[in-house]
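Let us practice reading a record.
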Amino acid sequence: MKSPIAALLLFITILPLGPGPAAASAGRASNVFPGVLAGLVDQDGRGFDPGSVRGRLVLVNFIFTGCGSTCPTQTAHLVQLRRTLPAAVRDRLTILSISVDPANDTPATLRSYAKTMGIADRRWRLLTGSLPDILRVTRAFAAIRPDVTSQALHSSEVRLFDARGRMLQRYSGAPLAAAQLRADLMTLSGARA
């Protein structure tokens, strides 16, 4: 049986390149990524350039460094997944972990979190920004319900975007659907298991 991503890739290859009903049905985030991330900064204090992920596979998740449950567990699983991917797949993949707690998650805090979690990869960017920027991003990705006031109730989903910025899949992040995510990354990269 083919994976959902393999079936989706086959379907996408026959779609026209312009936006249309298929793009709209993939979810709101598919229509805003990566441009909505403009204005954010990474763990090194560098501004995020949305063009830096053009042509790359991208995983997006939402975290906050003060989390004592889902966020560090999901991050550890993503670290492990990334380490087990073949070099050819890792080279095509960028991970963007976006903080939902901009008041506390400064670039220095994110840099410390990255070190603690074993993230030593220039293709894994931990992003933060001003409160208005983070609210704009979380709304665009539907990462926090509008009626929720606690960042602890953010989405734990991991979203996969293809090299053209189209959202292909949402994965359970608690626990991380690592086997399916790995299989889909391998398929998208044309790598063999």
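A brief commentary: DSSP finds eight helices and five strands in the chain.
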